[in-house]
Amino acid sequence: MRVIGGEFRSRLLKTLPGLATRPTTDRLRETLFNVLAPRIEGAVFVDAYAGSGAVGIEALSRGAARAVFLEKDRAAVRIIAENLKSLGLRSRSELVSAPSLSGLGKYPADIVFLDPPYDDADEYKAALQLLGDAPPSLAIAQHDRHHPLDAEYGQLRRTRVLKQGDNLLSFFAPVRIDADN
């Protein structure tokens, strides 16, 4: 796995062996960050269920001011720490070794990326509902096409879906309330 663009373009990242985590593919990350390009500069980015940290590292490489990595798997936390150290990104990041749900509300962010295990529908619902109670400017959930997500969670409403093979990226933004109504 490698960094796709920005300051660390083409730098290799360590990943966990086996199927314990499901890395976001290079192609899907490229698609995601092509969409995020106008919003990423100076943003605070949360990479929840971070795995190798590739998505948050990509955000930092492309100009995010700060990234918070939420990951409970100890082996994955070690890999993220090694990746951040090798790129000199520790000062611009925070690595939280805890379940993502416990950290989501504690780290205010402009953009939150969620990639829970595909087979855990309850985790998606809980994470998006938690974010819907105090929404960031943008929340993105990566999920399988066989696992559709609701259109709204609290104050978050789905604004866009990108499909790539069996993977979907659902984009959610806060519901805007018109003051004239």
Structure description:
With 181 residues, this protein is α/β, with parallel strands linked by helices. It starts with 25 loop residues before the first helix and ends in a 7-residue tail after the last strand. It has an eight-stranded mixed beta sheet. The protein has helices spanning 26-40, 54-61, 74-87, 100-104, 121-133; strands at residues 44-48, 66-71, 93-97, 111-114, 138-144, 152-153, 156-164, 167-174. Strand 4 (111-114), helix 5 (121-133) and strand 5 form a beta-alpha-beta unit. The protein has a single domain (6-15, 24-174), classed as Vaccinia Virus protein VP39 (Rossmann fold). The protein is globular and about 45 Å long.
CATH superfamily: Vaccinia Virus protein VP39
Q: Name the overall outline.
A: globular
CATH domain topology: Rossmann fold
CATH architecture: 3-Layer(aba) Sandwich
Domains (count): 1
Radius of gyration (CA) equals 15 Å
Structural class by helix and strand composition: alpha/beta
The whole-number mean of residue pLDDT values reads 92
